[in-house]
């Protein structure tokens, strides 16, 4: 794998993990949102990833010749199909006739664990990017001598 492909792979992962962190932050911020523009409670969102495959991997010869994964790409943001929670709050403005409010099915603990995992993946890719950069600089120093 070339130095530049290593940098591209890490850069694509950094972009994807940043998007994941933004979506998790949105989920946490809307954990108590009972009414959105369409009148329903907020739905938890998740980021969908897919491998970004290098064109050389389409053939066996390409795979042997050094083709391989080209990183990751965000294919979309999907809504979690989990139904909203019903909580008894008769004084709430969005309560139904029985006094129940529909709240998003967001567990702050799960979101924080996902945020920590995303943060660690981001840190790992920053480290890989820095190592690749240092290798390129060392190779340039060797070429000057």
Describe the structure in your own words.
By secondary structure, this protein is an alpha+beta fold. The chain has one domain. It contains 3 helices and 4 strands. The chain has helices at 3-29, 60-64, 108-144; strands at residues 45-53, 69-79, 85-88, 100-103. The strands form 2 sheets. The protein has a two-stranded antiparallel ribbon. Helix 1 (3-29) runs antiparallel to helix 3 (108-144). The longest helix has 37 residues, at 108-144. The chain is elongated, with a radius of gyration of 22 Å. 14% of the residues are buried. The model is unreliable at 59-65 (pLDDT under 50).
Give helix % range. 40-55%
Mean pLDDT metric: 87
What is the rounded Rg?
Answer: 22 Å
Please give the largest β-sheet: 2 strands, antiparallel
Distance from first to last alpha carbon: 25 Å
Structural class: alpha+beta
Number of domain units:
1
Strand order of the largest sheet: 1-2
Beta-strand content estimate:
15-25%
Uncertain residue ranges: 59-65
- Quickly count the helices: 3
Outline type:
elongated
Secondary-structure element pattern, one letter each? HEHEEEH
Number of strands: 4
Write the layout of secondary structure elements.
Layout: H1 3-29, E1 45-53, H2 60-64, E2 69-79, E3 85-88, E4 100-103, H3 108-144
Antiparallel strand pairs: 1-2, 3-4
State the gist of this model.
By secondary structure, the chain is of the alpha+beta class. It is 48% helix and 19% strand. It has three helices and four strands.
Descriptive tags:
alpha+beta; two-stranded antiparallel ribbon; 48% helix; 145 residues
